[in-house]
Design a protein that fits this description.
With 92 residues, this protein is of the alpha+beta class. It has helices at residues 2-21, 33-46, and strands spanning 61-67, 70-78, 81-86. It has a domain at 27-86. The protein contains 2 helices and 3 strands.
Length: 92
């Protein structure tokens, strides 16, 4: 029984190691300013009055803020309002 537990432990370790090493495609992809704008518009289409507050449906501008030469996040402005969208999407 002890030997079986040891073999299963090593098997679980190697399966986990292979899964982690081969999952490079699971990391977040970069987001563009246009995608950030689309996310905000789609969010508003889902609920035009989130938290009971009427919000403008037209985008005023999308500002890109960089860190270390790469885009870090975007601020999507709409007629006096704004939403912050991270540069990388979160993978779950």
């Amino acid at each position: 029984m002890k030997r079986l537990t040891g073999i299963l432990g090593w098997l679980a370790f190697w399966l986990l190691a292979v899964a982690l090493l081969t999952s490079g495609g699971a990391w977040a992809k970069a987001t563009t300013a246009e995608q950030a704008q689309t996310v905000v518009l789609n969010w508003l289409r889902l609920d035009g009055v989130p938290l009971g507050a009427a919000m403008a449906q037209q985008i005023k501008e999308v500002q890109t803020f960089s860190y270390g030469g790469s885009p870090a996040y975007y601020v999507v402005s709409r007629q006096g309002e704004y939403k912050i969208r991270p540069h990388e999407k979160i993978s779950v």
